[in-house]
Specification:
Radius of gyration: 27 Å
Organism: Xanthomarina gelatinilytica
Strand order of the largest sheet: 2-1-3-6-4-5
CATH class of the largest domain: Alpha Beta
Order of helices and strands: EEHHHEHEHEHEH
Protein name: Large ribosomal subunit protein uL4
CATH superfamily of the largest domain: Ribosomal protein L4/L1
Structural class: alpha/beta
Number of strands: 6
Number of helices: 7
Strand content: 5-15%
CATH architecture of the largest domain: 3-Layer(aba) Sandwich
Largest sheet: 6 strands, mixed
Family: Belongs to the universal ribosomal protein uL4 family.
Helix content: 25-40%
CATH topology of the largest domain: Ribosomal Protein L4, Chain: A
InterPro entries: Ribosomal_uL4, Ribosomal_uL4-like, Ribosomal_uL4_dom_sf
Subunit structure: Part of the 50S ribosomal subunit.
Distance between the termini: 19 Å
Protein backbone atom coordinates (compact mmCIF):
# COMPACT_ATOMS: atom_id res chain seq x y z
CA UNK A 1 0.00 0.00 0.00
CA UNK A 2 1.48 3.34 -1.09
CA UNK A 3 0.79 6.48 0.95
CA UNK A 4 2.00 10.00 0.22
CA UNK A 5 4.46 11.42 2.75
CA UNK A 6 3.45 14.88 3.99
CA UNK A 7 5.50 17.63 5.59
CA UNK A 8 4.48 19.61 8.69
CA UNK A 9 2.76 22.15 6.42
CA UNK A 10 0.40 19.47 5.12
CA UNK A 11 2.01 19.47 1.65
CA UNK A 12 3.11 16.36 -0.21
CA UNK A 13 6.86 15.88 -0.25
CA UNK A 14 6.80 13.90 -3.50
CA UNK A 15 7.81 10.72 -1.70
CA UNK A 16 5.67 7.66 -1.10
CA UNK A 17 5.73 5.39 1.95
CA UNK A 18 5.18 1.70 1.33
CA UNK A 19 2.93 0.31 4.08
CA UNK A 20 3.28 -3.44 4.48
CA UNK A 21 0.15 -5.41 3.58
CA UNK A 22 1.06 -7.87 6.36
CA UNK A 23 0.50 -5.11 8.91
CA UNK A 24 -1.84 -2.55 7.33
CA UNK A 25 -4.04 -4.69 5.07
CA UNK A 26 -5.01 -7.86 6.92
CA UNK A 27 -8.51 -9.14 7.60
CA UNK A 28 -9.24 -7.64 11.05
CA UNK A 29 -9.80 -10.09 13.89
CA UNK A 30 -12.50 -8.42 15.96
CA UNK A 31 -12.21 -10.79 18.91
CA UNK A 32 -8.47 -10.18 19.22
CA UNK A 33 -9.15 -6.43 19.15
CA UNK A 34 -11.82 -6.84 21.85
CA UNK A 35 -9.49 -8.79 24.13
CA UNK A 36 -6.58 -6.36 23.75
CA UNK A 37 -8.78 -3.31 24.40
CA UNK A 38 -10.35 -5.09 27.38
CA UNK A 39 -6.90 -5.82 28.82
CA UNK A 40 -5.76 -2.21 28.31
CA UNK A 41 -8.83 -0.81 30.11
CA UNK A 42 -8.54 -3.41 32.87
CA UNK A 43 -4.95 -2.35 33.48
CA UNK A 44 -6.08 1.25 33.94
CA UNK A 45 -8.25 0.29 36.92
CA UNK A 46 -6.63 0.97 40.28
CA UNK A 47 -8.56 -1.72 42.10
CA UNK A 48 -8.22 0.09 45.43
CA UNK A 49 -11.93 -0.05 46.33
CA UNK A 50 -12.60 -1.24 49.85
CA UNK A 51 -15.56 -1.43 52.24
CA UNK A 52 -15.35 -2.36 55.91
CA UNK A 53 -16.68 -5.76 56.83
CA UNK A 54 -18.06 -6.80 60.21
CA UNK A 55 -14.64 -7.73 61.59
CA UNK A 56 -13.39 -4.19 60.89
CA UNK A 57 -16.28 -2.24 62.43
CA UNK A 58 -15.93 -0.66 65.88
CA UNK A 59 -18.63 -1.79 68.25
CA UNK A 60 -19.58 -4.08 71.10
CA UNK A 61 -19.18 -7.82 70.74
CA UNK A 62 -21.94 -8.48 73.28
CA UNK A 63 -24.78 -10.69 72.14
CA UNK A 64 -27.56 -8.14 71.69
CA UNK A 65 -30.50 -10.37 72.66
CA UNK A 66 -31.15 -13.85 73.85
CA UNK A 67 -31.03 -16.70 71.39
CA UNK A 68 -34.60 -17.94 71.79
CA UNK A 69 -37.97 -16.67 72.79
CA UNK A 70 -38.01 -13.25 71.09
CA UNK A 71 -39.99 -14.32 68.04
CA UNK A 72 -37.39 -12.77 65.76
CA UNK A 73 -34.30 -14.02 64.01
CA UNK A 74 -31.18 -14.91 65.94
CA UNK A 75 -28.65 -12.09 66.29
CA UNK A 76 -25.21 -12.24 67.86
CA UNK A 77 -23.44 -8.96 67.03
CA UNK A 78 -24.45 -5.35 66.48
CA UNK A 79 -21.72 -5.27 63.83
CA UNK A 80 -23.68 -7.59 61.55
CA UNK A 81 -24.48 -6.22 58.10
CA UNK A 82 -28.22 -6.50 58.73
CA UNK A 83 -28.09 -3.69 61.31
CA UNK A 84 -27.59 0.02 60.74
CA UNK A 85 -23.92 0.88 61.15
CA UNK A 86 -22.87 -2.71 60.66
CA UNK A 87 -20.24 -3.99 58.26
CA UNK A 88 -20.80 -4.40 54.56
CA UNK A 89 -21.62 -7.95 53.53
CA UNK A 90 -19.56 -9.20 50.59
CA UNK A 91 -18.19 -5.71 50.02
CA UNK A 92 -15.49 -4.84 47.47
CA UNK A 93 -11.90 -5.69 48.33
CA UNK A 94 -8.67 -4.44 46.72
CA UNK A 95 -7.84 -6.52 43.65
CA UNK A 96 -5.87 -6.51 40.44
CA UNK A 97 -8.11 -6.52 37.34
CA UNK A 98 -5.27 -7.31 34.93
CA UNK A 99 -5.07 -10.52 32.93
CA UNK A 100 -2.56 -11.98 30.51
CA UNK A 101 -2.72 -12.27 26.74
CA UNK A 102 -0.14 -14.01 24.58
CA UNK A 103 2.14 -11.95 22.34
CA UNK A 104 0.81 -13.33 19.06
CA UNK A 105 -2.74 -12.33 19.92
CA UNK A 106 -1.63 -8.82 20.90
CA UNK A 107 0.28 -8.45 17.62
CA UNK A 108 -2.79 -9.63 15.70
CA UNK A 109 -4.94 -7.07 17.55
CA UNK A 110 -2.57 -4.20 16.72
CA UNK A 111 -2.35 -5.23 13.07
CA UNK A 112 -6.14 -5.47 12.95
CA UNK A 113 -6.49 -1.97 14.43
CA UNK A 114 -3.98 -0.49 11.95
CA UNK A 115 -5.72 -2.29 9.07
CA UNK A 116 -9.08 -0.85 10.15
CA UNK A 117 -7.60 2.67 10.19
CA UNK A 118 -5.87 2.15 6.84
CA UNK A 119 -9.13 0.93 5.31
CA UNK A 120 -10.86 4.05 6.64
CA UNK A 121 -8.12 6.26 5.11
CA UNK A 122 -7.35 7.45 8.62
CA UNK A 123 -3.58 6.99 8.52
CA UNK A 124 -1.25 9.84 7.61
CA UNK A 125 2.50 9.44 7.07
CA UNK A 126 4.45 12.52 8.10
CA UNK A 127 8.12 13.25 7.58
CA UNK A 128 10.18 13.48 10.75
CA UNK A 129 10.22 16.89 12.41
CA UNK A 130 11.45 18.57 15.56
CA UNK A 131 11.02 21.85 17.42
CA UNK A 132 13.81 24.05 18.76
CA UNK A 133 12.00 24.26 22.09
CA UNK A 134 8.72 23.02 23.57
CA UNK A 135 5.95 25.36 22.39
CA UNK A 136 2.29 24.41 22.20
CA UNK A 137 1.63 26.90 19.39
CA UNK A 138 4.13 25.06 17.16
CA UNK A 139 2.26 21.80 17.57
CA UNK A 140 -1.08 23.56 17.04
CA UNK A 141 0.28 24.88 13.74
CA UNK A 142 1.05 21.30 12.67
CA UNK A 143 -2.48 20.21 13.60
CA UNK A 144 -3.98 23.09 11.59
CA UNK A 145 -1.87 22.23 8.55
CA UNK A 146 -3.02 18.60 8.72
CA UNK A 147 -6.65 19.59 9.39
CA UNK A 148 -6.60 17.81 12.75
CA UNK A 149 -7.28 20.75 15.03
CA UNK A 150 -10.73 19.54 16.13
CA UNK A 151 -10.11 15.80 15.82
CA UNK A 152 -8.63 13.17 18.09
CA UNK A 153 -5.16 12.46 16.76
CA UNK A 154 -2.38 10.03 17.66
CA UNK A 155 1.19 10.89 16.63
CA UNK A 156 3.59 7.93 16.66
CA UNK A 157 7.27 8.89 16.84
CA UNK A 158 10.15 6.72 15.72
CA UNK A 159 12.12 7.68 18.83
CA UNK A 160 11.21 9.70 21.90
CA UNK A 161 11.32 13.44 21.21
CA UNK A 162 10.91 15.56 24.31
CA UNK A 163 10.26 18.87 22.52
CA UNK A 164 7.45 17.43 20.39
CA UNK A 165 5.95 15.55 23.35
CA UNK A 166 5.96 18.58 25.67
CA UNK A 167 4.52 20.78 22.92
CA UNK A 168 1.49 18.49 22.63
CA UNK A 169 0.94 17.75 26.31
CA UNK A 170 -1.51 20.61 26.95
CA UNK A 171 -3.77 19.64 24.03
CA UNK A 172 -6.63 17.42 25.09
CA UNK A 173 -7.42 15.92 21.69
CA UNK A 174 -3.89 15.00 20.64
CA UNK A 175 -1.47 12.44 21.98
CA UNK A 176 2.18 11.86 21.10
CA UNK A 177 3.69 8.45 21.81
CA UNK A 178 6.74 6.43 20.82
CA UNK A 179 6.63 3.05 19.08
CA UNK A 180 6.88 1.16 22.35
CA UNK A 181 3.67 2.79 23.64
CA UNK A 182 1.53 1.86 20.64
CA UNK A 183 -1.60 -0.02 21.69
CA UNK A 184 -4.80 -1.24 20.06
CA UNK A 185 -6.91 1.04 22.26
CA UNK A 186 -4.95 4.18 21.37
CA UNK A 187 -5.08 3.39 17.66
CA UNK A 188 -8.84 2.89 17.65
CA UNK A 189 -9.52 5.80 20.01
CA UNK A 190 -7.99 8.31 17.57
CA UNK A 191 -9.83 9.74 14.57
CA UNK A 192 -6.52 10.05 12.73
CA UNK A 193 -3.26 8.15 13.24
CA UNK A 194 -0.16 10.10 12.19
CA UNK A 195 2.89 7.91 11.67
CA UNK A 196 6.26 9.58 11.37
CA UNK A 197 8.49 8.09 8.69
CA UNK A 198 11.04 6.85 11.19
CA UNK A 199 8.36 4.87 13.06
CA UNK A 200 7.26 2.76 10.09
CA UNK A 201 10.21 0.39 9.95
CA UNK A 202 10.06 -0.45 13.65
CA UNK A 203 6.26 -0.86 13.65
CA UNK A 204 6.41 -3.28 10.73
CA UNK A 205 9.39 -5.10 12.24
CA UNK A 206 7.65 -5.56 15.61
CA UNK A 207 4.30 -6.65 14.16
CA UNK A 208 5.55 -8.87 11.34
CA UNK A 209 7.12 -11.44 13.69
Amino acid sequence: MKVAVLDINGKETGRKADLSDAVFAIEPNNHAVYLDVKQYLANQRQGTHKAKERAEISGSTRKIKKQKGTGTARAGSIKSGVFKGGGRMFGPRPRNYGFKLNKNLKRLARKSALSIKANEKSIVVLEDFNFDSPKTKNFVAVLKALDLENKKSLFVLGASNNNVYLSSRNLKGSEVISNSELSTYKILNANQVVLLESSLEEIESNLSK
